[in-house]
Amino acid sequence: MYSYLDFEKPIAEIEGKIKELRHLSDDSGVNILDEVSRLQGKVDRLLRQTYSRLTPWQKTLVARHQLRPHFSDYSAALIEDFTPLAGDRLFGEDRAIIGGLGRFRGRSVMIMGHEKGADTDDRVLHNFGMPNPEGYRKAVRLMRLAERFDLPAITLVDTPGAHPGIGAEERGQAGAIARSIETCLDLRVPMISVIIGEGGSGGAIALAAADRVIMQEHAIYSVISPEGCSSILWRSAEHAREAAEALKMTSEDLLKLGVIDAVVEEPVGGAHRAPETAIERVGDAIERALAELRPLSGGELRSRRRQKFLEMGKLTLG
Q: How far is CA 215 from CA 22, 142, 236, 314, in A?
């Protein structure tokens, strides 16, 4: 069943009327196609108007929508013969990050990413997309494997952040994230990262220090969640909307700041309304990025990638 967001209430009311009319037509044989067509046109206009002026907080809600496609949806649609590889060879398997080998549009690649899960049981299994240290150590292992076999590395980012539990800290969460970022910056193969939902804190950048960082139109990418920022600055999560405005976490803001390299337009109404279209567009963006990076040598890729991130945050004193 489709779940409407708070700001979609006018759309929900009209779509409810469309369902009632279709049900009436089925029961009575009355032809109500003209009225349904008129209402559907109104829905389309409302969707375009609403989604063309989303606030940062509303984009946060869209990025977290339960029907938004997850890593498993992208890998199933874009990767042929996907073979998952498990474990960090030190502690165990972390299901919050899935990764493995496969073929993307005819080319062998290593792909990995955060998996939030589709329903309650699945979300618990994948720890809501919040990795433990072993998840990041697995990512490092797979990135090095990609380098060994000269395969492009593709990462899909969708996490509220790394798991903040005591066990994770005891097993070296901060160090695992740091080593994952270090590995991203050190790779001598093309690396492409796509923010497909939430890109939260170091837990996201651990898989996103890439040659090309691509972001879906209504995804978010930030050093902290709006609720977390609000709790720190205002001692309450009630100011999350204000925090979302200040964090500059939308694709438009991040493209202007040079933090990301490209934005993938989502279907009208968000990726959750037309997942197949959204996934195909992401695939096209990855293909374009691979074509740009393919001619570069390993040393050049590594040097450019490092310089790109060193340039971020530089201040020019006038």
A: 37, 22, 29, 22
Six-digit token string for 179: 């080593």
Residue 26, pLDDT score: 59
Quick one: pLDDT at residue 21? 79
C-alpha 73/C-alpha 76 separation (Å) is: 5
Positive or negative, the CA dihedral 115, 117, 123, 128 is positive
Q: What is the CATH number of domain 60-311?
A: 3.90.226.10
Query: What is the residue-wise DSSP string for 78-125?
Result: HEEEEEE----SSS---TTEEEEEEEETTEEEEEEEE---SSHHHHHH
Instruction: Report pLDDT for 42.
Output: 86
The whole-chain average pLDDT of the chain stands at 92
Find all residues with CB under 8 Å of 172, minimum gap 6, and list them. Answer: 133
β-pairing, 212-216 with 262-264? parallel
Report how far apart, in Å, the C-alpha atoms of 21 and of each of 32, 144, 164, 195, 307 are: 7, 57, 49, 39, 59
Token readout for 102 is 């496969």
Rounded CA separation 46/14 (Å): 10
Per residue in 252-305, pLDDT (tens digit) is: 999 999 999 999 999 999 999 999 999 999 999 999 999 999 999 999 999 999
Q: Considering the entire predicted model, what is its pTM?
A: 0.91
**Can you tell me the distance from the alpha carbon of 118 to that of 130, in angstroms, rounded to the nearest whole number?**
14
Q: How would you class 35 by CB atoms within 10 Å of its CB: exposed for 0-12, middle for 13-18, buried for 19 or more?
A: middle
What mean pLDDT is predicted for residues 137-150? 97
| CA pair distance 26, 42, nearest whole angstrom | 22
Q: Report d(CA 243, CA 245) in Å as an integer.
A: 5
Q: Are strands 262-264 and 191-200 parallel, antiparallel or unpaired?
A: unpaired
The number of beta carbons lying within 10 Å of the beta carbon of residue 275 is 18
Q: Where exactly are the structural domains of the chain?
A: 6-53, 60-311
DSSP 271: T
